[in-house]
């Protein structure tokens, strides 16, 4: 168990200054938060006796939480075989789908146990367990007694365990989790896959998610802060109470203070107003944060401390004008993401999330939809810090099921509780711009569906009147005709660019959001010929072509969406399906095991950019040039055959040369097709080995940049590049190391499938590996994997000890790659 400085409740050990005496003894901390990460015992299977304190768990596996019990495999198409007709995919008959949820063994029951020391606990104290998420149907036991349950695996929830605890260190915590078959449309993960916290406070205290901070007025001179803070007291508690709050900027400078007494009639809530002069605004480009630090006093005695991090930003959604942030019109350049982290499964890891966001930032992405469920709190914190606007989503179904054992079974009893927790946890975050109450819920077209939408939206408004509510709708006609779409603050449509105008004419809001767009499919580094647009196209290799022209029968190429985003002022942006590939939903190969992960990602399951990354980057990243050529140029046997060359660039025109011969100059032009407007394409190039080179010209017609791709020779060596080379020695920091199989000249061997082996020595360990091949059944946690199209990503984890870390990647017949990383001690506070 480790003491942590929690995110939303940062507690500074108060020191009592004894002034002239010179002594400075530390007073007891009024609030302590512990991360329950180590010393957990785990066993798959149902062991009801495990709830009892005396149960012997010595033979159980020792695990560290966050933990995903299913990611270690093995893959098997029978793990969650679903015979279904996927209605939202326009399927006409049920078929057998083996990889729909990733083919991993997440179904069944599992138990986690650990001793629970509660330091400082005793009379006048309270203890709370806070789960950031537990998959799923959590039942929590303390000392053999059930303290509560929470079915929905994605939500955060807490239980007050004060009355269940005994004094001393001899308490036992046990958690039973159970996942049903046919409960999901993607890989949900399994177990205590997010953090578990123990919070110990005085019994006069601020409860979990006890503050609500809004900024009702922001202008150049000042920003007004409205802070509501709840307080819980035992019956007949000491009065009077007082809350002292100061606002600090990121450097810790105090900018405003206030002190508020609480009258008995104040309903146990403090209302405070503070003014910050010349506030700096939060935006994706300037993620400036402030913190309100509150101290709760009973008389002169400090009872609790609580911190609320926030930002100053204002936004509007206006008919005819669309979306604006801090007074500036903009369109969402967003992606939808599922919650898994590829080879790490769903076990949350801050370094892995940060790496994803760094990659998305480079693409110019400024928004994320947490499809189709509540995110990990770490993601929301990172979005505040790094500058991403969030659409936080709650549900994939309401009353009408999409899968046999999905959320519909809990909806009536739990929907309100789930929404309340979602909003209370995340409503102080500047990154959160809107809430989504559902995705493609079949209730869109059910009688009374609009009433459900209204009820859920009202709940969200009640808990947070400052943000609008949306739903990702797919049944556009039904949703418009039965007044479902018109009820919502924001009408969000999935895959309907061709109908945005029609919808906008019929709806009252005056703007439309592309809640889900594109769903183009591709496999990194795979190119199929002839190069033609196609729907639901399948190949014997169970891959999709990276010319970015293949879509599903309901979806579009990126360019088709771009046209509408650019031409229709009332369209306020898009959320592309998806940023990263995810486990499960291997469309168009839903029926074709071993395909078991998606092809939709702009980046693959290993986090390696596919070509599409550069198409979005060329449009979204306005700060840096993009010039990217495809396909690779190593095609033995294709000599003389038509091998189109595409260029994704933000330059308006470019000239292509094949072995020095000009193939002509192309200029982006809106006339012929959506593709000609956003890509430069040379469709008639005949393959000959050598070099393709593109020379780009800027708007003034000046030569601006060049890029080339060469035919590769035989695989010769492995090169390694890490996303970060200096890590933290905290046992969970990660380096993502890209391994490339290259020829002697340093060219990527673009079809290499060499089997690579990984060895980590020093202050680190091998954690996982992924190659982005949706058909690969190789296990992520074993230190060996085949390269896919010449590349893969190995993940190295630090230990708790500082020192040098060495990764060696070897393969028969290739010169090994060696990489050195540094793992540094955690900075003392
Ligand atoms: C949508 C759905 C997503 C995903 C996507 C694939 O209909 O909302 O969850 O299934 O299709 O294209």
Automatic annotation (TrEMBL):
Domain Glycosyl hydrolases family 2 sugar binding: from-to ranges: 36-199
DUF4982 domain location: 640-705
Stored Pfam families: DUF4982, Glyco_hydro2_C5, Glyco_hydro_2, Glyco_hydro_2_C, Glyco_hydro_2_N
The Glycoside hydrolase family 2 immunoglobulin-like beta-sandwich domain, residue ranges: 212-313
Keywords, sorted A to Z: Glycosidase, Hydrolase, Signal
Annotated Glycoside hydrolase family domain residues: 718-817
NCBIfam families per UniProt: GalB
Similarity comment text for this entry: Belongs to the glycosyl hydrolase 2 family.
PANTHER family linked to this entry: BETA-GALACTOSIDASE (PTHR42732), BETA-MANNOSIDASE (PTHR42732:SF1)
Protein name: DUF4982 domain-containing protein
Taxonomic classification: Bacteria, Pseudomonadati, Bacteroidota, Cytophagia, Cytophagales
């Amino acid at each position: 168990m480790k003491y942590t400085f929690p995110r939303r409740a940062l507690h500074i050990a108060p020191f009592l200054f004894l002034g002239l005496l010179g002594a400075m003894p530390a007073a007891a901390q009024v609030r302590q938060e512990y991360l329950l990460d180590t010393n957990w015992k785990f066993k798959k299977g149902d062991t009801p006796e495990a709830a009892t304190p005396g149960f012997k768990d010595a033979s159980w596996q020792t695990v560290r939480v966050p933990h995903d019990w299913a990611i270690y495999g093995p893959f098997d198409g029978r793990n969650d075989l679903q015979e279904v007709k996927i209605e939202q995919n326009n399927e006409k008959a049920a078929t057998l789908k083996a990889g729909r949820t990733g083919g991993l063994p997440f179904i069944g029951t599992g138990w986690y146990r650990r001793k629970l020391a509660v330091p400082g606990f005793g009379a006048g104290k309270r203890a709370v367990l806070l789960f950031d998420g537990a998959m799923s149907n959590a039942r929590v036991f303390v000392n053999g007694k059930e303290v509560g349950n929470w079915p929905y695996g994605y939500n955060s929830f807490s239980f007050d365990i004060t009355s269940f605890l005994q004094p001393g260190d001899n308490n036992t915590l046990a958690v039973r989790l159970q996942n049903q078959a046919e409960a999901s449309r993607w890989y949900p993960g399994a177990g205590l896959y997010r953090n578990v916290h123990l919070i110990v406070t005085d019994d006069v205290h601020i409860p979990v998610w006890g503050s609500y901070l809004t900024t009702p007025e922001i202008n150049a001179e000042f920003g007004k802060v409205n802070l509501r803070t709840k307080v819980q007291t035992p019956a007949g508690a000491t009065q009077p109470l007082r809350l002292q709050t100061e606002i600090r900027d990121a450097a810790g400078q105090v900018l405003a203070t206030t002190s508020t007494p609480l009258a008995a009639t104040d309903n146990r809530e403090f209302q405070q107003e503070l003014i910050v002069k010349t506030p700096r605004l939060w935006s994706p480009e300037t993620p400036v944060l402030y913190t309100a630090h509150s101290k709760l006093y009973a008389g002169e005695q400090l009872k609790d401390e609580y911190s609320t991090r926030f930002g100053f930003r204002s936004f509007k959604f206006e008919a005819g004008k669309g979306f604006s942030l801090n007074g500036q019109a903009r369109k969402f350049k967003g992606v939808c993401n599922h919650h898994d982290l590829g080879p790490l499964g769903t076990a949350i890891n801050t370094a892995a999330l940060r790496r994803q966001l760094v990659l998305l930032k480079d693409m110019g992405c400024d928004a994320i939809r947490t499809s189709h469920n509540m995110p990990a709190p770490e993601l929301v914190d990172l979005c505040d810090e790094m500058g991403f606007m969030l659409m936080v989503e709650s549900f994939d179904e309401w009353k009408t099921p999409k899968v046999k054992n999905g959320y519909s079974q809990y909806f009536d009893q739990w929907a309100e509780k789930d929404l309340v927790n979602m909003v209370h946890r995340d409503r102080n975050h500047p990154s959160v711009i809107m809430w989504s109450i559902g995705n493609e819920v079949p209730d869109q077209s059910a009688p009374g569906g609009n009433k459900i939408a209204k009820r859920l939206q009202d709940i969200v408004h009640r808990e947070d009147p400052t943000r609008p509510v949306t739903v990702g709708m797919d049944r556009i006609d039904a949703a418009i005709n039965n007044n479902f779409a018109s009820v919502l603050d924001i009408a969000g449509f999935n895959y309907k660019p061709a109908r945005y105008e029609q919808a906008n004419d019929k709806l009252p809001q005056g703007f439309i959001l592309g809640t889900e767009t594109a769903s183009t499919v591709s496999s990194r580094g795979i190119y199929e010929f002839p190069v033609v647009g196609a729907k639901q196209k399948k190949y014997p290799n169970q891959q999709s072509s990276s010319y970015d022209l293949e879509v599903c029968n309901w979806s579009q190429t990126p360019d088709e969406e771009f046209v509408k985003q650019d031409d229709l002022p009332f369209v306020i942006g898009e959320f592309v399906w998806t940023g990263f590939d995810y486990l499960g939903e291997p469309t168009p190969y839903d029926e074709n095991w071993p395909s078991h992960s998606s092809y939709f990602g702009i980046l693959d399951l290993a986090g390696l950019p596919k070509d599409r990354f550069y198409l979005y980057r060329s449009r979204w990243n306005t700060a840096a040039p993009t010039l990217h050529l495809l396909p690779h140029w190593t095609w033995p046997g294709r000599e003389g055959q038509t091998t189109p060359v595409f260029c994704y660039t933000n330059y308006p025109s470019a000239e292509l040369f094949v072995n020095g011969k000009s193939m002509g100059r192309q200029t982006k032009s809106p006339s012929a097709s959506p593709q000609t407007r956003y890509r430069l394409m040379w469709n008639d190039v005949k393959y000959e080995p050598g070099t393709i080179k593109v020379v780009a010209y800027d708007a003034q017609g000046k030569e601006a940049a060049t890029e080339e791709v060469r035919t590769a020779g035989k695989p010769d060596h492995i090169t390694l590049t890490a996303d970060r080379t200096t890590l933290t020695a905290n046992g969970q920091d990660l380096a993502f190391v890209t391994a490339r199989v290259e020829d002697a000249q340093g060219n990527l061997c673009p079809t290499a499938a060499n089997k690579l082996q990984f060895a980590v020595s020093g202050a680190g360990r091998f954690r996982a590996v992924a190659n982005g091949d949706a058909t690969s059944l190789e296990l992520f946690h074993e230190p060996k994997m085949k390269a896919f199209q010449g590349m893969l990503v190995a993940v190295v984890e630090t230990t708790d000890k500082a020192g040098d870390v060495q990764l060696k990647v070897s393969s028969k017949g290739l010169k090994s790659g060696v990489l050195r990383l540094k793992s540094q001690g955690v900075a003392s506070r």
